[in-house]
Amino acid sequence: MAAMTTISTVLSRGHVSGSLAYWGQCGVHKPYPDFPKLRALSDYSGSPIEVLRRMFADDKHMRVTQERDGTVRMIEDDVPTDLLDVKIRHISFASGPMSHGANMALIQVLMLPEVEAFKKAHNIGPPEENAFIFPGDAGDPGTPTVSGDLENVTLSQALDYVLGTFPGFWLYENCRSEGGGRTVYFNFF
Q1: What is the pLDDT of residues 8-25, one digit of tens each?
Q2: How crowded is residue 81: how many other Cβ atoms within 10 Å of its Cβ?
Q3: What's the whole-model pTM score?
Q4: φ, ψ for residue 74 (rounded to 5)?
Q5: Residues whose CB falls within 8 Å of the CB of residue 98, separated by 6 or more in sequence, listed in order
Q6: Under a CB-based contact definition with an 8 Å cutoff, are residues 132 and 107 in contact?
């Protein structure tokens, strides 16, 4: 959890949001998420890109970049992005008693037919019965909700849209699973 807090702090100081995509070691007896190794720094001065690059210096596959709109991408160069590139025809972020919080918006995105069909066709888990645990802020009326409609966006663009309401970063952890498939976990921080 310290790694997530540190990354969140670096992004917040720079007034930017981002994403983290990497290979993990998912498993029943392993902590979730099992974060990539971060270097502890004695000095956190500099732009978010500079600081994050120093923090991830021990991960030879991690690339830290910044897009024109300011979004910071932390992605291992060998992680598959096929699921992130799935095209979503339409999403309307629903409101209601269980729609509060970034991770509830995430659940709305991951339950879309295009996403579920892609996961099934490409042997990507976890199985639906293990996929979702409602976050603690799910029914909290004091937590904001994501609103609006999106047309013809990728899964990653939909997650970036959620960052507009909940600045921070979204996480995309890939793990190899038995039988040639993989398990993928998402979360917002």
Answers
A1: 999 999 999 999 999 988
A2: 14
A3: 0.89
A4: -115, 110
A5: 104, 134, 138, 139
A6: yes
